[in-house]
């Protein structure tokens, strides 16, 4: 049975397991839209370079076993040395309070499933849920039809969440390939501030396919940072859609650090809805073997006097494949827009490939927009310079690659996270460095 058929076959049973009936009709409508189009193929322009056939040809369990035996030691290995963080742990889709450390005050935090069932939050969901997520995409419709796992967080006006929040999504004890539809909703009201770290980890030899949708609303003078650490196993697939809507004078950052996972597709949309908005998107990808990582970004400059900054670095070896498609749309009324977009890549092996396509669509005449991409190998003169000073070829290559990737993490202000990314860089580059 194809995954398309599995999705349609399991939906009635899935609805029967839920209590939030007010979403049933929207779930059925989303499934209908998905059924009409099905999964994208390489014939679709947006998936021209990304073949997901490997994902869609497998059988999956839509109802993961809840039992687990995750130990504190296993969880400790995933931490960032974050004694002063809050952390939220989901195992097999369920929030595990006994493994979590939640001290969030003056804010509303709930598991997504609980929030859906809470009548007190119905008006909030009516106002925000699925209002900025694209309605014409296969994966977002599929997520709406099946979403159950994830979290809801609302940070009230002028509340500063001092501790970063690390959200873990773990899968364990699954005998079959497992399909998760994760949904997150973050609302950061006027003058508020929050920092989220998100990571996914599969502890089984069976495959995990995660279809994740996140909606972020950042209000006036608010700040929201979302950091994605993607360092999962070779039996993991991830398709992520993140939508961020910003109001005037707000700042939103999404950083994506990708080191592991078999096939990863990151879709990122920023929507400007006021003046003096700042949006930051940074990415570092280091992959090998036959991994595939695809970054598709879009910034919708709908209002004047706003800035966006995109900086994605990729290092590819063996037979890995990278894709970058970054779009910037500037509305005719969005004068004084300042948009920067850059994608730089290094290929370390003859079998490694990158398809990169930066795009600008500008309908205003008083703007400052730039974009560019590079694909190449390490600078031979710089490599010679380091080797002439007694540094081995392997370490010289690693130092140059580290310097190449480093500027894409300059805006990380969480020190343990920055150290962790530096360690992962060193590990992937197979060199010992002092930090």
What do you see in this structure?
Residues 175-404 form the SUF system FeS cluster assembly SufBD core domain. This is Fe-S cluster assembly protein SufD. It holds the Pfam family SufBD_N. Residues 11-167 form the SUF system FeS cluster assembly SufBD N-terminal domain. This protein has 435 residues and is an alpha/beta fold. It is built from 10 helices and 19 strands. The strands form 2 sheets. Strands 2-1-5-7-9-11-13-15-17-19 form a 10-stranded mixed β-sheet, with helices on one face. Strands 3-4-6-8-10-12-14-16-18 form a 9-stranded mixed β-sheet. Strand 1 (86-91) and strand 2 form a beta hairpin. The longest helix has 14 residues, at 3-16. The termini are far apart. The mean pLDDT is 91.
The secondary structure category is alpha/beta
* Mean pLDDT metric: 91
Number of alpha- plus pi-helical segments: 10
Helix content: 10-25%
Give the end-to-end Cα distance, rounded to a whole number of Å. Answer: 51 Å
Basic shape: globular
Strand order of the largest sheet: 2-1-5-7-9-11-13-15-17-19
Cα-atom Rg, whole angstroms? Answer: 21 Å
Give the strand content: 35-45%
Q: Give the total of beta strands.
A: 19
Largest sheet: 10 strands, mixed
Protein name: Fe-S cluster assembly protein SufD
Pfam families: SUFBD_core, SufBD_N
Family: Belongs to the iron-sulfur cluster assembly SufBD family.
């Amino acid at each position: 049975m194809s995954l398309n058929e599995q999705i349609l076959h399991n939906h009635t049973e899935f609805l029967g397991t839920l209590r939030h009936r007010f979403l049933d009709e929207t779930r059925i409508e989303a499934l209908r839209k998905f059924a009409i189009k099905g999964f994208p193929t390489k014939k679709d322009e947006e998936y021209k370079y990304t073949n997901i056939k490997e994902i869609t040809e497998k059988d999956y369990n839509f109802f993961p076993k809840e039992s687990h035996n995750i130990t504190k030691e296993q969880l400790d290995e995933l931490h960032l040395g974050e004694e002063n963080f809050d952390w939220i742990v989901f195992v097999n889709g369920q929030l595990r309070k006994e493994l979590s450390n939640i001290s969030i005050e003056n804010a509303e935090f709930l598991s997504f499933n609980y929030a859906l069932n809470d009548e007190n939050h119905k008006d909030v969901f009516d106002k925000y849920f699925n209002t900025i997520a694209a309605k014409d995409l296969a994966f977002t419709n599929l997520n709406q039809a099946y979403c159950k796992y994830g979290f809801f967080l609302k940070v009230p006006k002028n509340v500063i969440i001092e501790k970063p929040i690390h959200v873990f999504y773990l899968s364990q004890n699954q005998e079959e390939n497992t399909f998760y539809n994760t949904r997150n909703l973050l609302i950061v009201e006027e003058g508020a501030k929050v920092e989220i770290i998100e990571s996914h980890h599969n502890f089984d030899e069976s495959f995990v396919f995660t279809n994740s949708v996140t909606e972020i609303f950042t209000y006036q003078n608010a700040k929201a940072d979302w950091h994605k650490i993607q360092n999962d196993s070779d039996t993991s697939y991830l398709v992520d859609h993140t939508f961020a809507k910003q109001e005037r004078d707000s700042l939103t950052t999404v950083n994506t650090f990708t080191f592991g996972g078999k096939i990863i597709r990151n879709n990122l949309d920023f929507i400007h809805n006021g003046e003096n908005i700042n949006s930051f998107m940074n990415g570092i990808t280091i992959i090998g073997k036959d991994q595939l990582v695809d970054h598709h970004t879009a910034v919708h400059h709908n209002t004047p006097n706003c800035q966006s900054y995109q900086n994605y670095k990729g290092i590819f070896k063996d037979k890995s494949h990278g894709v970058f498609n970054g779009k910037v749309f500037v509305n005719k009324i969005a004068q004084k827009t300042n948009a920067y977009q850059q994608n730089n890549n290094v290929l370390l092996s003859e079998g490694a490939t990158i398809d990169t396509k930066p795009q600008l669509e500008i309908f205003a005449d008083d703007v400052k927009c730039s974009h560019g991409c590079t694909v190449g190998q390490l600078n031979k003169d710089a490599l010679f310079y380091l080797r002439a000073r007694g540094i081995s070829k392997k370490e010289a290559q690693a130092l140059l690659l580290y310097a190449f990737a480093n500027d894409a993490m300059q805006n990380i202000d969480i020190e343990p996270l920055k150290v962790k990314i530096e360690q992962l860089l060193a590990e992937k580059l197979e060199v010992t460095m002092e930090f």
